[in-house]
Amino acid sequence: MERHCVFVTIFVLILHLVQAQNQTGFISVDCGLSPPESPYNAPQTGLTYTSDTGLINTGKTGRIAKDFEPFVDKPALTMRYFPDGIRNCYNLNVTRDTNYLIKATFVYGNYDGLNVDPNFDLYLGPNLWTTVSSNDTTEEIIHVTKFNSLQICLVKTGISIPFINVLEVRPLKKNVYATQSGSLKYLFRMYVSNSSRRIRFPDDVYDRKWYPIFQNSWTQVTTNLNVNISTIYELPQSVMSTAATPLNANATLNITWTIEPPTTPFYSYIHFAELQSLRANDTREFNVTLNGEYTIGPYSPKPLKTETIQDLSPEQCNGGACILQLVETLKSTLPPLLNAIEAFTVIDFPQMETNEDDVTGINDVQNTYGLNRISWQGDPCVPKQYSWDGLNCNNSDISIPPIIISLDLSSSGLNGVITQGIQNLTHLQYLDLSDNNLTGDIPKFLADIQSLLVINLSGNNLTGSVPLSLLQKKGLKLNVEGNPHLLCTDGLCVNKGDGHKKKSIIAPVVASIASIAILIGALVLFFVLKKKTQSKGPPAAYVQASNGRSRRSAEPAIVTKNKRFTYSEVMQMTNNFQRVLGKGGFGIVYHGLVNGTEQVAIKILSHSSSQGYKQFKAEVELLLRVHHKNLVGLVGYCDEGENLALIYEYMANGDLKEHMSGTRNHFILNWGTRLKIVVESAQGLEYLHNGCKPLMVHRDIKTTNILLNEQFDAKLADFGLSRSFPIEGETHVSTAVAGTPGYLDPEYYRTNWLTEKSDVYSFGVVLLEIITNQPVIDPRREKPHIAEWVGEVLTKGDIKNIMDPSLNGDYDSTSVWKAVELAMCCLNPSSARRPNMSQVVIELNECLTSENSRGGAIRDMDSEGSIEVSLTFGTEVTPLAR
Ligand SMILES: *[C@@H]1O[C@H](CO)[C@@H](O)[C@H](O)[C@H]1NC(C)=O
Ligand SMILES: *[C@@H]1O[C@H](CO)[C@@H](O)[C@H](O)[C@H]1NC(C)=O
Ligand SMILES: *[C@@H]1O[C@H](CO)[C@@H](O)[C@H](O)[C@H]1NC(C)=O
Ligand SMILES: *[C@@H]1O[C@H](CO)[C@@H](O)[C@H](O)[C@H]1NC(C)=O
Ligand SMILES: *[C@@H]1O[C@H](CO)[C@@H](O)[C@H](O)[C@H]1NC(C)=O
Ligand SMILES: *[C@@H]1O[C@H](CO)[C@@H](O)[C@H](O)[C@H]1NC(C)=O
Ligand SMILES: *[C@@H]1O[C@H](CO)[C@@H](O)[C@H](O)[C@H]1NC(C)=O
Ligand SMILES: *[C@@H]1O[C@H](CO)[C@@H](O)[C@H](O)[C@H]1NC(C)=O
Ligand SMILES: *[C@@H]1O[C@H](CO)[C@@H](O)[C@H](O)[C@H]1NC(C)=O
Ligand SMILES: *[C@@H]1O[C@H](CO)[C@@H](O)[C@H](O)[C@H]1NC(C)=O
Fold first, then answer.
1. Quick one: which of 203, 566, 741, 881 is 20 to 30 A from 266 by CA?
2. Could you identify the atom of ligand 7 that is nearest to the CA of residue 2?
3. Residue 174 assigned to a binding site
4. What is the value of pTM for the model shown?
């Protein structure tokens, strides 16, 4: 039986009066409109449009040619075009972390009399959204904002001059059109009707534009009755009250479309409501298939009530040709029916925006000095080819926001004092403000910018004296030449421009301060070493001195070798193998003590183990490199002839399975704790998949391999023994499998390959276990495998029937639903359709947030801030902060 990531969203009926449509939060910009005409209410929609002054400082205004006016809506009549500069950006005030529908309209209308089709790029912040190459088009995207501002940039790519006519931004409710990742680029939005009417605001509260679709082989169905439209999608009444069924009662209802490029993933949203009143002996029931593949069903639209079938994870169509079919089931007496359908392609925006503090700082510099440089628009650093001139940025690591490392504003006609904003440029290495008209004091905050290596303030009219803290700053080159009024206290100005010489002049003061500093430094260092804490990086002074890289490295400079132990040490640690903790496939695990106090778990590899010595060695080497707070740490190993042992940190609370089955104690893990455990396990697994090079496949994810320490922090275990390493460049593991039945990816049987998606499958099984607390395989069930069993029970009804009864209903049902859906996605038979672990981590965190926000007692074990320190050993400092 197939498993799917499509589900019917059924929302609790909340009777809410159809609100008078209001435009709260809408941004409706008529670009190029002259300010005296602003604002106005557009004729058909009643939307209030304003001019774009204040949103952009560049560009010229234009108007489409008279001949085109009758065919164009009022807001699109005028435009702003950009003959100057490469990138020109609108800056809109929005609310961060909000889902927005963003529309940009481009109508050329021969405004310049040149009659050439446009061709330029449209960016959302630093990321390419689309290329505009049609003379009349609206681009639409559903996007979650990261900041309180949104930049929409037009970028010249050839000779074509970019222009824009209308910009519209509509806030959406939070979970509407949710994706696993990425934003949604409009593909189509159609309602089934033989009319030619387009529907948008005020019918559609979100101002979505619905186009009618109809085929000759269909017959129209409409109703005059009210259709219940109370779902989060808030579909217009006029969209839901029409539908069609195939004329030929036996036929399928087909919708086809193509996707370019063919492999682009997409999401579809299919909206249904039964509009006919059915007789008692009538049934309308159908399956939904995509390219012949079953996705959901049998499904019956609800009488006069809206339901949406949506993809939970993105779909793909072979060759980019999609055919969606509604296929009548045998039981059905009526043909399938469709009301409306939308589809979007997924668009990823990988480029991060520049560090927010840096943006704040540089914006302040720009505003203070009134800098009107044409390139100073949009994101300061990225994309690199459009970065602001005078700036240099570091964006070599794409996983962190770019940072500004150099600012050159020499000879830029700056007036006034050195602005405070510069102190927000906390990664600056090079600052050149020379040859301006700057006045006032040299601010002390410059000394607080740790990373600064060069400051050039020469050729200004600065006054006061140079702050001592600046002079003392190690490794800093300071140039203050040519400031005639700068005070020469302490004989300072004798050696203008050379920080080192200056220091020698004020040596007595500095020396005493320096010696105190050294003493303090030494003390600090002493305590750091003494405590052996998980340092987040070397002390600040050290960072600053190192070749100017100010981003603190997460990795300790020296990875100390973990200890290698002799066999007699192992015997001593285990007190002659006295206390057995457990037996695994590869050997027995004993309790042990290192240094007589620190508890460890020692696995002695049995001679009969299929693991060869070579593999053992390779694994030890790899395990010593792998550090993550959600992976059981390797304390050491023993490699002495026949005697091979692995020494792990001790996990006081055993494994998850014991807790689920109640064999450990009679204490029931509550839903929040279960979620916390799987979130942490998922993080560990995500690290293996994404944080390790080469990628590691665990290959044996199961509840017995999720261990819990004293604080109930979850850590994955056994990741050393059950996987092998793919050669660089290979993406899968094809060696003999050591997985566990029930957890093993069904695709493996077909392909003989295990990928990281196989771990995702096994993880899905673990999720179902914490939800249901049922055995993974139970021959007494009609569907022995847990995934099939859950799938079957769910289609029949209530989620309560699968929930672990010992939870006594004490959980947030949104969070449970989400977890179930996620589990089913992970269990998709097709590995390509499973989410990756990063997505799983995000989704599970949302489940946890949802559960935690439910209020009520949060158990001790859930408390944040539990000790992250794994059992460290010797001089080892382990986990990589991730
Ligand atoms: C518009 O709707 C918002 C919330 O949707 C509400 O807070 C506001 O009061 C409404 N304004 C008017 C004028 O109805
Ligand atoms: C955007 O917000 C800033 C401050 O938050 C404000 O100064 C500015 O006027 C706003 N712009 C518009 C167009 O509302
Ligand atoms: C766009 O181009 C087509 C054909 O090239 C032309 O018929 C149409 O009038 C143009 N529309 C606009 C708004 O320029
Ligand atoms: C529909 O199918 C039934 C049985 O399969 C058949 O008897 C009937 O002729 C079909 N009707 C049409 C219109 O094709
Ligand atoms: C729908 O698609 C199926 C399969 O491709 C085809 O047999 C059928 O004729 C199509 N129906 C219509 C009405 O186009
Ligand atoms: C359904 O019942 C109606 C009367 O209520 C009858 O006329 C019709 O033939 C029945 N249809 C079927 C398929 O049994
Ligand atoms: C509809 O789907 C169900 C469940 O997968 C399947 O048993 C049935 O055969 C399908 N019916 C049709 C007509 O495809
Ligand atoms: C600085 O200001 C003076 C007078 O205010 C002016 O003459 C001079 O040109 C300015 N210099 C620069 C570099 O702007
Ligand atoms: C800029 O830096 C100052 C001093 O560090 C800080 O107080 C202020 O909050 C920063 N501003 C912003 C917007 O981050
Ligand atoms: C420099 O500043 C002083 C006062 O601070 C002023 O008298 C003088 O005119 C300024 N020089 C220039 C060139 O602006």
1. 203
2. 5
3. no
4. 0.62
What is the rounded distance in angstroms from the CA atom of residue 447 to the CA atom of residue 453?
10
* Residues 337 and 243: beta-carbon distance below 8 Å: yes
Q: Is the C-beta atom of 16 inside 6 A of ligand 1?
A: no
How far away, in angstroms, is 248 Cα from ligand 5 center?
11
- Find the range with the poorest average confidence among 151-155, 182-186, 524-528: 524-528
For the Cβ of 855 lying below 6 angstroms from any atom of ligand 2, the answer is no
User: Cα dist. 328→218, 272, 332, 524, 638 in Å?
Assistant: 15, 15, 6, 75, 65
Pocket perturbation via mutation, ligand 9, pick of 366, 422, 424 by most ligand atoms within 8 A of CB: 424
Q: Tokens for 267? A: 């999401």
pLDDT band at 864 (very low <50, low <70, confident <90, very high): very low
* The pLDDT of residue 10: 31
Catalytic residue among 121, 203, 435, 700: 700
Report residue 47's pLDDT band, with 50, 70 and 90 as the boundaries.
very high
Give the chain's domains with CATH numbers. 24-172 (2.60.120.430), 185-347 (2.60.120), 356-485 (3.80.10.10), 556-649 (3.30.200.20), 656-853 (1.10.510.10)
User: Whose CA is closest to atom 13 on ligand 3?
Assistant: 109
Measure the CA–CA gap between 125 and 146, rounded to whole angstroms.
Answer: 10
Determine phi and psi for 514, rounding to 5 degrees.
-65, -40
Instruction: Give the pLDDT of residue 612.
Output: 61
For the chain, what is the mean pLDDT? 82
Asked whether the beta carbons of 190 and 218 are under 8 A apart, the reply is: no
